[in-house]
Records
---
Amino acid sequence: MAEITPSVPPQTGGDVQFVREVSAPLYAARGWMKFLGVLMIIYGALMVLSIVGILICWLPIWIGILLLRAAGSAEMAQLSGDKYQLVEALSKLRTYFTIYGILALIGLVAAAIALMLGGFGVITSALMNV
């Protein structure tokens, strides 16, 4: 029995132009994405120097790699007009924003808990002095 392989339909000239137009803003921001990606990797490498940083240093390194890959895919999408490269770039950016959204929520919850515990401590110390 013959093996069936899925074929990717060829992109037409209109598809290539559309991908180039849609990927233009990402292509224009690729320098900043690469810059922030390198900074995040360096930050993660420096976090290894602290005891607590050893536990979470993988997170900024992962974020930096995501940004570098998104920038590379955006550049390839712009230059070649390949829609799969554009989807790859957008997928990496989606993961990046999801991670940062989760970290923001964790930070807000931690801040709220710290404020409540701090307020509880102030009330307790005030009651102890009465």
---
Amino acid sequence: MTTGKIEEPLIHLPPTQTFRILVLENPENIDKLKEVCKLNGHQVVPCFTIGESMLFLDTKDHVDLIISAVHLEEESVFEFLNKVKAPQSVHKDVAFVMLCMEPNPLASVINKSTELAGKLMGADRYLYMPEFDANRLIVEIADLLPPVPMKELD
């Protein structure tokens, strides 16, 4: 599986309605997120590590929205959030969604404190999904997308 590369949408919308979404997720969940975003006409940049995500953000191109798993393998979503939302970051205005999808029992117990910490650090939205809900995800992120995709403003 290629990561850190732009994947084109499965349906084509006008350029003014095609947004680019960076998804940082664990391998077992990334395909669900990619599929729902691409089926709704968005470009997707799938990543498995904070390093891959920052490499894309800092050297490749823009994104209109970031969706990050709350529970990453061997990394911290808070580290990623801190890098993206730092005052000197060129990405600080990009909407950031923390996604707790199909959590294990421990994640369910610490859910509220994780949500509060994320919001205090600058996350725009925290989504808790004991079961993945594609329709809810699209509704929640639609509210955070900019009026015009960044690529159209260049």
---
Amino acid sequence: MQPRTFSSRPARLHAAFSLVEMLAAVAIIGIIAFLAIPNLVKMRGDSERNIAIARAESINMGMATFIQVRGRTQAVADWTAATTDQLKYVKIAPYISFSETNLTDFMPNGYSVTFRTIDPLAKVTLKQGTTVINY
């Protein structure tokens, strides 16, 4: 008969986190989120502003192309006949890449453009609410 030997290994322990460790992990994640979320919101606002500026520049380029294609005299006559910003946008939309059907769909939410003269050619006025954005 063999003598009975005992293993030097302890009984199987259950691997788990304690409540204090879990609370510390949640607190660290909360602090990181608290610091990161305002930056993410600011980055989103900045990107929408940059999109609005880029689209206003696209409209300006579309106006210049419209003059080149139609000729200055005909372009001025067509521009004067269009009485609203939407009708003016419809005139230049074929000359803008990836343009939407409506001007309000083309610009990001909260931004608007107001068309100015085409002779002499003047850039559109870009606004965020009532604030004019110089670009």
---
Amino acid sequence: MRPRFQNRHSIGSFSWGKRLLNFWNVENIKIVRRVIISVVGATILLIGIALLVLPGPAFIVIPVGLAVLATEYAWARRWLKKVRTIASNVVSGHSRTAPRDSGI
């Protein structure tokens, strides 16, 4: 005979654990990961943009923010590729456009 006030879903049973595991399935983990990466990457990118007018290493922080966002978004990968190209051209001394002959 069972006690009258016993709850079938008591803390000692595994039903709460199953519900918790069902909540944290693979799809929910992917969504949470994407949100966290978006927030962290956007924050770093915004700090880098603010450092353009404030004293600080903006040209280091902006690519870091884009690199964080590039782990999840294709548009950030494209921008990061452009930033890398521009940075390598600046470091190597090449200009973005070919110099024109003045004809003088």
